[in-house]
């Protein structure tokens, strides 16, 4: 496995490759990332992993500076999972002087995270489009934990007719049910032991659906009861949406639905989601 | 030569092609377009021409509805110049229901046309990026008549790391010096015979430079005198800029400079430009 830091070095190594799978990440890899790499490994001849903590998708009061970084450990996980190449550019390589282009995605990017984190998805869309162009992969792999992000990237790629295929892979969870996330490293062990409340709330809402409830408000109420029992939790949203448009659903119809939740627990911001089936 | 109207048909025909030159146009082709096709023909195995009058780059009071269209004549010019494939999508093919993505380019897109035509370059950048992604060409050819447009597209492609190479080709002119443009068809013959005033103004400013003048204001004054003699002309701007950044220049330095002009003559909007050397 090779690590490169410049676009030109990466392009040289990938020249002539016609079966490339690409896993874009912000590093501090966990088994969720490893599962993406393994899927790319299964589908393609060459697997590229990028590690780039993208400043433009963080708000001014967010955790860009403190976001966890550990390239040595990342290399180990990437190698074990089967990556061939790590692309780890610095900020200047991605945003050289004079950089002046940005992407706006409306539609799936507007509600929820779009409201809570203004500019976030513009930053995500811009860096993902750059990375897709740099790598020129046939497929790119994203974790479903960031459900709305996947919807936004699908919209971006569809709207701009980008040739890379977007593949969403299931969320990996700790034994407690807590969705794996680099940001879980912000928790003390005691705090982390209480973070499964989000998973339990999603499961409670799903159980309500599976027991026959079809009213969105009643399905959500089953989860809200669980969340209300954790006094350290500050809920940002807990909602049931159309899985493609991310628009809130009142009465369940024929289309695919998704529970989405965002909350702060001990001031760590967590997001998670779950289907109803 | 083949004409296709859908993205999927175009992609099928281009599958496996590794030497594609692409000429994006709004149709109503003239010899300026033909020169782009001939350059692409010289450089590549396959030449694709697109014809699409892009609604999102026209302002609400601009000439989208009346923009001249003539596919039959375009096919003849394209064939003679050596195009292999014409891609002529309709608006719904390019902007299907739910389309929600736009590109903002600052930098080279801000002054001049950016001020006179708000939203124009966002529309241009978005459609050009879509077309570059759809065709997947090695090179794309643009006319220098739209000098600022070429600068914006260069910035777009550089900022987003798009793999297509951007090639700018010299402006073709009528015998009178009038830059070839589909919009020249709006003129009556009498009006058209007076439209060379723009070319004569550019030449007068260039002559001032060539005679040793190095003060930007004095160079521009030489052209303004020419423009002032045409009473039907409403000048929008006549300026000397850095050819890369499009920023106005006061005193001529080491960098490449460009005269840029926009004006209405008999209510037809004309733009043109010229180097000093």
UniProtKB/TrEMBL annotation, chains A, B:
Q: What residues does beta-alanine bind to? A: 57
Subcellular location(s): the record lists: Cytoplasm
Task: Tell me the domain of life.
Answer: Bacteria
Task: Name the enzyme's class.
Answer: ligase
UniProt-annotated binding residues for ATP: 26-33, 143-146, 172, 180-183
Question: What's the Enzyme Commission number for this chain?
Answer: 6.3.2.1
The pathway it acts in is: Cofactor biosynthesis; (R)-pantothenate biosynthesis; (R)-pantothenate from (R)-pantoate and beta-alanine: step 1/1
Q: Spell out the catalytic residues.
A: 33 (proton donor)
Q: Which GO terms describe its molecular function?
A: ATP binding; pantoate-beta-alanine ligase activity
One Gene Ontology cellular component: cytosol
Q: Tell me, what's a Pfam family for it?
A: Pantoate_ligase
Reaction catalysed by this enzyme: (R)-pantoate + beta-alanine + ATP = (R)-pantothenate + AMP + diphosphate + H(+)
Extra remark: The reaction proceeds by a bi uni uni bi ping pong mechanism.
* Database matches in NCBIfam families: cyt_tran_rel (TIGR00125), panC (TIGR00018)
This one is known as Pantothenate synthetase
